[in-house]
Design goal:
The complex is a heterodimer. By secondary structure, chain A is of the alpha+beta class. Chain A has 3 domains: 110 residues, Butyryl-Coa Dehydrogenase, subunit A, domain 1 (Orthogonal Bundle), CATH 1.10.540.10; 104 residues, Butyryl-CoA Dehydrogenase, subunit A, domain 2 (Beta Barrel), CATH 2.40.110.10; 146 residues, Butyryl-CoA Dehydrogenase, subunit A, domain 3, CATH 1.20.140. Chain A is 50% helix and 14% strand. Chain A has 11 helices and 9 strands. In chain A, the strands form 3 sheets. Chain A has a 4-stranded antiparallel β-sheet with strand order 2-3-7-6, with no helix packed on it. Chain A has a 3-stranded mixed β-sheet with strand order 1-4-5, with helices on one face. In chain A, strands 8-9 form a two-stranded antiparallel ribbon. The longest helix of chain A is centred in the middle third of the chain and has 37 residues. Chain A is globular, with a radius of gyration of 21 Å. The two termini of chain A are 28 Å apart. By secondary structure, chain B is an alpha+beta fold. Chain B has 3 domains: 87 residues, no CATH class; 114 residues, Butyryl-CoA Dehydrogenase, subunit A, domain 2; 135 residues, Butyryl-CoA Dehydrogenase, subunit A, domain 3, CATH 1.20.140. Helices cover 44% and strands 15% of the residues of chain B. Chain B has 11 helices and 10 strands. In chain B, the strands form 3 sheets. Chain B has a 4-stranded mixed β-sheet with strand order 1-4-5-8. In chain B, strand 9 and strand 10 form a beta hairpin. Classes of the chains: A alpha+beta, B alpha+beta. At the A-B interface, helix 7, helix 8, helix 9 and helix 11 of A face helix 7, helix 8, helix 9 and helix 11 of B. The structure holds flavin-adenine dinucleotide. The site of flavin-adenine dinucleotide has 21 residues of chain B, from strand 1, strand 3, strand 7 and helix 11.
Chain lengths: 374, 409
């Protein structure tokens, strides 16, 4: 038993933290919130050059071949920002989806582009007024010779505005999980992306109107294996996403502790008030619950143990923890916490945006129960 | 990272040795929850007997140093012992004994060599049981405010005062206590820590009947009020120096607040899942009812988070990593989870969870016991709110200076 990070992971965390401090200070992150894509071209290419974008991609496809725990350590540091932008969407979820679903030829063609940051991928699954899960995917392409014709709308597509390519989940059969994955170049005629306004961060509506997609763009070149492949990819990607949220909870915790030591009311630092302490205790309990469930799931995956129940558990715990941690931080900060410039609100918006992303907590709890064979 | 103990061939060999020994020596009746005082006393005798046998082998306190009667084992072997004992639904020690789990480590840290040699072997070999006598009618959370007096008289201290919420059923051999040796002295610098023989003249034990959390759940829970009237304790039983008792106590308080951490299977969870699989409502097993499943998922998650906090604290302790708020965090988490669970269980199981009736209640009324204990266990070792106070101080917000965790080794 050893719950510490290894030497290599500690160094990775250190360089990521230094990078974030230099290149992504709070003001830069707050400024990015007013952009459509959430990233600056320059940061994007630096992160690609550092090998962080393709960290999880196998070396033969131009990546770093790192373990999921390695990637989690990096994303935890990103989450402290929180660094926005399509890093997870492209470098983790899409990369793993292509790896799980693609043919060898497709992997060779796509993964090096993702690793180098030349193409940006995201996955489009959810549809208007439909639930999460394969049964919620109704968009059915028409086969026309060696082309699919796509019509319909995908909603809540993360980084849909930033992406150059979309992996679109479509229905190709009547059984619930008869789903296929099509790679669509976003510049194709008939594709339109529109960021959804509001509290949500960087999720888009993507409209498809008679979009022609070559049959060769079907991942795996065979229909109906899409949901299974996506599930395998999500099993690996979700704990990395959770680690990103752990980093965000950690930042909310540190901000709150610092504030409660320095903000003086009634002649004492507010941290002396037990009501304020209650918020911080609640916050750190959620933070640690998210942290340890996440890293245990990662350990199981990296060491080849059955991990499905732990992954679903970590996602359910972390989504709730992130929301609660931000709520507690807002209580500690009161007024100043809602001022964008202060830097808490990017965490809060993220906690809400990721709450339902790739399945809400209740869905994951039910999957967990199923995986445990109750 | 590695969340699991890796077993070597040597450990596996040890495991089979332990298993066959336990199979030969654990009486089958031992894990049944007693329902009467007589059964409780009989059960306690079985447990003490097993404790002495384990103690003779160094298996009662496997991690404790061999020179003082412990097992002198490393964590990897101690874990095997714990796991094997758990198969018999036993913990180590197999009875309530805060002497070994809290008192002995305190003596290891603060005692003189002479005290270690005389006080530790009887504890580690299972020859004595020890209670902790801290709380008083006027000093609960504010433990530093204890009023029991200890006045030096030649080679002895004379103790006078009253302690409450102490121990369990079935009596004790020794007790340790905190008393004021300098009643007008500065707070935290006026107390001393004593290990007292329970049979000394002047000690009276009067049972208190509690809602739950007893040693045996025979009725509900037994604690005791203990009166000290001119009890003469040899000065050699003062541990850690006169007026240094508060620092001495910080060791066992840290351990009691979850600082030591733990690992192990969650027996309650397995029993609950079995109950929901084997009990029907409207002809359908409870586990198939979607509402019950959702609640079970929440209970399971709390149990897993608690397990991970315990595992983390265990690792922090044995890898000698710095600790801050983690001890009281574990303690707080388990307390809150226990109380929350009483509601969650009542909601999904129904009034069957409230009866100890052998026909309509759960087996060994484990659910009914949880309904009691979930409420009562909010308080021992510091209330839930006091755990928050400690966490805040260690996080560095409760006071001007950050408090550090108690010294446990
Ligand atoms: C089942 C059980 C077993 C026990 N076993 C033992 C034992 O073996 N040995 C032993 O010595 N004692 C034992 N105790 C006693 C236990 O340690 C005390 O009950 C506990 O420390 C609380 O003290 P109190 O009951 O006097 O409550 P009080 O201290 O009077 O507390 C009442 C309320 O005030 C709150 N409060 C007090 N101070 C503060 C503060 N500074 N900030 C915020 N809130 C505060 C508390 O949280 C609580 O809500 C046991 C108790 C129980 C219930």
């Amino acid at each position: 038993m050893d719950l510490s990070l290894n030497e290599h992971q500690r160094m990775l965390a250190q360089s990521a933290r230094t990078f974030m401090q230099r290149r992504m200070p709070k003001a830069a992150i707050v400024a990015l919130h007013n952009t459509d894509t959430g990233y600056q071209a320059q940061t994007w290419s630096t992160i690609a050059e550092l090998g962080w974008l393709g960290l999880l991609i196998a070396p033969q496809y131009g990546g770093g071949g790192a373990s999921l725990t390695d990637a989690a350590v990096l994303y935890e540091e990103f989450g402290r920002g929180p660094l926005p932008g399509p890093f997870f969407s492209s470098g983790v979820l899409s990369a793993l989806t292509v790896e799980e679903a693609g043919t060898e030829e497709q992997r060779r063609r796509i993964l090096p582009e993702i690793a180098a940051g030349r193409q940006i991928y995201t996955v489009a699954i959810t549809e208007p007024r439909r639930s999460w899960g394969p049964q919620g995917i109704a968009m059915e392409p028409r086969l026309d010779g060696d082309k699919y014709i796509l019509d319909g709308i995908k909603l809540f597509v993360s980084d849909g505005a930033a992406a150059s390519h979309l992996i679109v989940a479509v229905r190709t059969g009547s059984s619930d999980d008869a789903i296929s994955l099509l790679v669509v170049d976003k510049r194709s005629r008939g594709v339109a992306a529109r960021n959804l306004p509001g509290l949500l961060s960087w999720q888009a509506e993507i409209t498809f109107e008679g979009v022609e997609v070559a049959a060769a763009a079907l991942l795996g070149r065979r229909e109906n294996g899409g949901w299974a492949a996506l599930s395998r990819a999500m099993q690996r990607a979700l704990p990395v996403l959770c680690a990103y949220q752990v980093g965000s909870c950690q930042a909310a915790f540190e901000m709150s502790v610092e504030y409660s030591r320095t903000r003086v009311q009634f002649g004492v630092p507010i941290g002396r008030f037990q009501r304020v302490q209650d918020h911080i205790v609640r916050l750190v309990n959620h933070l640690d619950a998210a942290r340890w469930t996440t890293y245990e799931a990662l350990w199981k995956l990296d060491s080849g143990r059955p991990a499905a129940d732990s992954v679903h558990l970590a996602k359910a715990v972390t989504a709730e923890a992130h929301m609660e941690a931000c709520n507690a931080a807002h209580e500690v900060h009161a007024g100043i916490g809602s001022v964008h410039e202060y830097g808490l609100t990017p965490h809060t918006q993220l906690s809400r945006t990721l709450f339902n992303y790739l399945g809400d907590p209740k869905w994951h709890k039910r999957q967990m129960a199923a995986a445990l064979q109750w | 990272m590695d969340f699991e103990v890796n077993y070597t061939g040597e450990q596996q060999r040890f495991r089979s040795e332990v298993r066959s020994w336990l199979e030969a020596n654990v009486p089958p009746a031992i894990s049944r929850r007693p329902t009467t005082d007589e059964e409780s006393a009989a059960n306690y005798r079985l447990r003490r007997e097993l404790g002495r046998k384990l103690g003779a082998k160094g298996w009662l306190y496997p991690l404790a140093p061999k020179e003082y009667g412990g097992g002198g084992m490393d964590v990897d072997h101690a874990i095997v012992l714990e796991e094997e004992a758990d198969r018999f639904e036993l913990s180590l020690p197999p009875y309530y004994n805060s002497g070994g789990t809290l008192g002995a480590p305190t003596i290891l840290v603060w005692g003189t060599e002479e005290q270690r040699r005389t006080l530790l072997p009887p504890i580690y070999r299972g020859e004595v049981r020890v209670w902790q006598l801290l709380s008083e009618p006027e000093a609960g959370s504010d433990l530093a405010g204890v009023r029991m007096r200890a006045t030096r008289d030649g080679d002895e201290y004379v103790l006078n005062g009253q302690k409450v919420f102490i121990g369990s059923d079935n009596g004790t051999d020794w007790m340790w206590t905190l008393a004021a040796t300098d009643p007008n002295g500065e707070r935290h610098k006026n107390l001393s820590w004593f290990m007292v023989d329970a049979r000394l003249p002047g000690i009276t034990v009067q049972p208190m009947d509690l809602l739950g959390a007893g040693e045996s759940s025979a009725r509900s829970g037994q604690k005791n009020t203990i009166f000290f009237e001119d009890v003469r304790v040899p000065a050699s039983r003062l541990v850690g120096g006169e007026n240094n008792g508060w620092r001495v106590a910080s060791t066992h308080l840290e351990l009691e607040h979850g600082g030591g951490g733990h690992i192990g299977r969650n027996r309650f969870w397995h029993a609950l899942l079995d109950y929901c699989r084997n009990t029907t409502r409207d002809g359908r097993p409870l586990v198939e009812d979607p509402d019950v499943r959702d609640t079970l998922a929440d209970i399971y998650i709390k149990a897993q988070v608690g397990r991970l906090f315990g595992l983390r604290n265990f690792w922090l302790t044995y890898a000698k990593q710095p600790k801050s708020y983690e001890g009281p965090q574990l303690s707080l988490y388990m307390k809150l989870a226990g109380l929350w669970m009483t509601g969650a269980i009542l909601q999904s199981i129904g009034p069957e969870a409230l009866t100890s009736d052998p026909r309509w209640g759960s087996e060994d009324h484990f659910l009914e016991a949880q309904q009691r204990n979930g409420i009562v266990l909010m308080h021992p070792g510091g209330t839930a709110d006091i755990q928050k106070v400690s966490m805040a101080r260690r996080i560095g917000i409760g006071r001007a200076t950050r408090e550090s965790a108690g010294k446990v080794s």
